[in-house]
Amino acid sequence: xxxxxxxxxxxxxxxxxQAAFCDFIPQVFGRADFRRWCQWGEWTDDYRAYxxxxxxxxxxxxxxxxxxxxxxxxxxxxxxxxxxxxxxxHRGRGLSRVVMDAxxxxxxxxxxxxxxxxxxxxxxxxxxxxxxxxxxxxxxxEAWPEGxxxxxxxxxxxxxxAGLSALSNEGIPVTERFGARGYSTAASWHMANGxxxxxxxxxxxxxxxxxxxxxxxxxxxxxxxxxFDLRAWVPRLIDRPIRTxxxxxxxxxxxxxxxxxxxxxxxxxxxxxxxxxREPHGFPVLART
Length: 289
Description:
Strand content: 25-35%
InterPro entries: Acyl_CoA_acyltransferase, GNAT_dom
Shape: globular
GO molecular function, one term: acyltransferase activity, transferring groups other than amino-acyl groups
Order of helices and strands: EHHEEEHEEEEHEHEEEHEEE
Domain N-acetyltransferase: 8-156
Number of domains: 2
CATH topology of the largest domain: Aminopeptidase
Pfam families: Acetyltransf_9
Keywords: Transferase
Number of strands: 15
Distance between the termini: 35 Å
Number of helices: 6
Radius of gyration: 19 Å
């Protein structure tokens, strides 16, 4: 019988192993990349990878990120899994199970969540995860550009990254139905990869990730210390007339009249040891790993 492969934990200070991890990611996940995110110093102690290495090369991996979830306003310490996969040349050897088991053992009995693509929906229930429906939200709203566009922010600037971290940690959560606090390093990963819409400054204490496609304003996330009138800012977030607003989170705080706009079928949520709201909800897209 073959021995179980050794699993190596990769942490915030393991620069050499981080480089091997970064080489692994595009082999499994295509356009996704961690290099820029690592260069920004966003790999903190809250993020760990559990990898099988072969001759210094990562061939299988499961990563976990510590999360401060909010479920109906109640804070829950949890872990979110991500970067789960195996390079094509090593599939069929059970390596994905080995790294999954190592990550789950490290998380202990804490609640967990993950987002999966449609190709692997049968995989995660083997580890005790249950699927949960995620809802999209939208509102009919006509608006026209007015005034200068809100200034854009660039996370290449370390001061901007620090500001995003402060707003995420100290500000109000974008949703309390099913959301999180302090996930700036998850958000910055999306931004580093170009997966998020532009980040704009509405004031010292309010930043927003939003952009226009066609006649729709898409709002990915809001980082703010206090509630504000979102509708009043819409004309400064658009460069053309719009008729609809779509939200990347449950907008019960920001746009209570928003309606369900179908099920989110781009990323499927699985949870373990976590009871969610019975009300329709969508976990913030920039908090997903």
